[in-house]
Amino acid sequence: MSAARPLTTLRTLAVIAALPLLLTACGYGSKSTDDGKQTPAAAAGAKKLSVDEVKIGYFPNLTHATALVGVQEGLFQKELGGTTIKPSTFNAGPSEIEALNAGSIDIGWIGPSPSINGYTKSDGKNLRIIGGSASGGVKLVVNPKKIKSLKDVKGKKIATPQLGNTQDVAFLNWIADQGWKVDAESGKGDVSVVRTDNKITPDAYKSGSIDGAWVPEPTASKLVAEGGKVLLDESTLWPDKKFVITNIIVSQKFLKAHPDVVEAVLRGSVKTNAWINANPDEAKAAANKALEKLSGKALPAAVIDPAWKSVQFTDDPLASTLNTEAEHAVKAGLLEKPDLKGIYDLTLLNKVLKAEGKSEIDEAGLGAE
């Protein structure tokens, strides 16, 4: 990647990041929800770390299941001892980045595009990616009556969650690879890219206002439950079928002041991922229980079973794929070529992995000095 100073990213995202009221009005990241009601309390008499409380953020969806399960099962709290954990949930990346910048959260689970956007907009001063969480779990689901093959996508209306978000960038890149033309910002062209909040995408599909969607789980499986067909799994487009869908980020200020707390959260994440992978059925149930607490409704088996199988939980942030995703955003015209050197600091993660007898993870040349 170029070492030139990053300039501007997607104009719409810049407005979103700057205006909290617009975030709420657009549905692109409503106010965070304090999820303290589902948080196991710190053990009485347990020793506190260097801070009384750590504030974490994540989304109430399956690609953030490490956070859902780690909080639900008390695996983070166990590592934090007397330091309490305060979780909040978000509907989209820009609002979580805003919360991190404001100090409303210290550590967050988030996708690659908002990580890149947040890092470049601050000239590399606000966050670091400190670990991985999930890979995969993104699909192109279509109405089989209207779209029977990949070439039939041309001329159709396909939803993505948000202008410039991770799935939007991936879909625009796929469109370009087909030789088709679409104006990235308007979504108009050989394919109509309809930016639609994941919460309303299934209703838009049922009403016929969209012909399909390039979306993460569990939205993809909700569309299948409504009669949609998986036309393409994004993992098939990546080497080894792996690409980052969820990172762990931290405020650089918090990382510098409280490395012991960050290390404890990373230990909790590594142990949670190990437990998820060793106990997939129990972990799926725990994630669904957490979702029920957050939304008031558990996912039905017809949705959560296939959705869960398509997500891989990993400590590796898959740094090389983040670099590729940034290149895709540049290619789409949504991002000027960024300097991502320093976006990763995997020092504490590798310390935790070494203690667990696991291999260290490479930063793909994008590590902090």
TrEMBL record:
Subcellular location: Cell inner membrane; Periplasm
Keyword Glycoprotein: no
Gene3D superfamilies the record matches: Periplasmic binding protein-like II
Keywords from the named record: Cell inner membrane, Cell membrane, Membrane, Signal, Transport
SUPFAM superfamilies: Periplasmic binding protein-like II
Family that this chain belongs to: Belongs to the bacterial solute-binding protein SsuA/TauA family.
Designated name of the protein: Aliphatic sulfonate ABC transporter substrate-binding protein
Species of the source: Streptomyces sp. 900105245
